[in-house]
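Re: that backbone. Tokens:
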């Protein structure tokens, strides 16, 4: 009986220790998770060619806007890189243009698109987009920033198709139906294109791009 009780106590104690060790790991006591940025950082690559997320640089307050400037940088934890002599480095310098991220050319960052604003309107509508700088581009300030952009999304409607329908079947409202403007399409259908006048006007309006898709998108 004593042996059975001792075995049961030992089993219970081992389960308790196992539970406590797992809890310790889950709470971060021995976290060995690899940071997300490490996936972007090539191992043993040139320090000066590392993506911006792989390093931390000190701000050079003496730099002149639009001019090249030198910045002192340090690689982040779990990132390894070398210099041109293949010597492992931790501290190094990079040269980049003195400019804030939101001042970069549009080709250096990507922005979110909006599909709920009118692209064909007067005045032309804007939307608030979140923009993120490309990994290989270095700049000052936050790499993700808001920016007001013109609505420029498309729903897949072709200008050439709309114009062709307006010229050939505009009297039956085919152009308006194609653009999703079914009310105007019905009006043209039952009025025989406004006795030809409405048809002629729509050919001109679609030709100059004044009449567009009902969802507010741009032609392709």
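Recovered sequence:
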């Amino acid at each position: 009986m004593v042996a059975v009780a001792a075995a049961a106590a030992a089993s219970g104690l081992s389960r308790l220790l196992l539970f406590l060790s797992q809890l310790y790991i889950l709470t971060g006591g021995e976290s060995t998770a690899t940071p997300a940025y490490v996936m972007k950082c090539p191992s043993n690559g040139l320090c000066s060619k590392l993506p911006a997320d792989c390093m931390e640089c000190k701000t050079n307050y003496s730099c002149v806007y639009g001019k090249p400037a030198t910045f002192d940088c340090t690689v982040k934890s779990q990132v390894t890189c070398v210099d041109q002599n293949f010597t492992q480095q931790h501290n190094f310098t990079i040269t980049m243009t003195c400019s804030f991220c939101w001042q970069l050319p549009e080709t250096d960052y990507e922005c979110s698109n909006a599909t709920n604003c009118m692209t064909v309107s007067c005045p032309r509508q804007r939307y608030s987009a979140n923009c993120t700088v490309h990994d290989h581009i270095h700049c000052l300030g936050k790499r993700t920033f808001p920016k007001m952009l013109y609505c420029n999304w498309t729903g897949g409607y072709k200008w050439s198709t709309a114009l062709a329908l307006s010229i050939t079947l505009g009297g039956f409202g085919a152009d308006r139906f194609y653009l999703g403007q079914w009310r105007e399409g019905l009006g043209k259908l039952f009025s025989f294109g406004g006795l030809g006048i409405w048809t002629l006007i729509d050919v001109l309006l679609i030709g100059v791009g004044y009449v567009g898709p009902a969802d507010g998108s741009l032609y392709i």
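Residues 2-26 form the longest helix (25 residues). Confidence is low (pLDDT under 50) at residues 2-7, 22-26.
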